[in-house]
């Protein structure tokens, strides 16, 4: 069975994508910082009959990243790495003049440094897979200038660039930076708590990610709305 590592997998997009892959028979290595939520997610996904390894920890910890890859190796390898865990830098989001520099450092560590560290750790197994793929969850804030989204957007823009360079350096892999769009998640609610507009659920966005896995288009940056529309 194929094996995926998904970070930030206890809720939101990570959990929804994990459920979709489990339904397809994928074995999973799940990461999150909250033990209770991760245990619940693992139990739910194990019900599909797939093997699930759930490791509590912080992706900024090199030792934790090594444990994630070791767990995947124990399941047979790594066919897909999903860098989904994210940090905003400030909750709620604030203008750059008030952005705590420590918060920006946290966003960069979680959204840029940790994904690269996990790629480095998993790269031999991704290469050996023959169908290895990396999905880096991005944001439209990486490409557009939105007030208060500067720190988070800068970190996602850096992640996009790392994805693009990795694709050039590793032509045997598929490397997709994916903007899922605004979703009804705890992360979005923390970013903009006063926004009452309805947003798509993570489960509603997952088919865009599955299309990438099914069709394996060229490495690059993709938007979930376009993938869902079939463009």
Descriptive overview:
With 231 residues, the protein is α/β, with parallel strands linked by helices. Helix content is 49%, strand content 15%. It contains 8 helices and 7 strands, in the order βαβαβαβαβαβααβα. A 7-stranded parallel beta sheet has the order 3-2-1-4-5-6-7, sandwiched between helices. 45% of the residues are buried. The mean pLDDT is 94. Keywords: Oxidoreductase.
Mean pLDDT: 94
The class by helix and strand makeup works out as alpha/beta
Proportion of helical residues: 40-55%
- Biggest beta-sheet profile: 7 strands, parallel
Give me the CATH architecture, please.
3-Layer(aba) Sandwich
Q: Percent of residues in beta strands? A: 5-15%
How many β-strand runs?
Answer: 7
What's the name of the CATH homologous superfamily? NAD(P)-binding Rossmann-like Domain
Question: Which fold does the CATH topology refer to?
Answer: Rossmann fold
Q: List the secondary-structure elements in sequence, H or E.
A: EHEHEHEHEHEHHEH
**Major β-sheet strand ordering:** 3-2-1-4-5-6-7
Distance between the termini: 30 Å
**Tally the helices: what do you get?**
8
Class in CATH? Alpha Beta
Low-confidence stretches: none
List the domain count as a whole number.
1
The best one-word shape is: globular
Spatial extent as radius of gyration = 16 Å
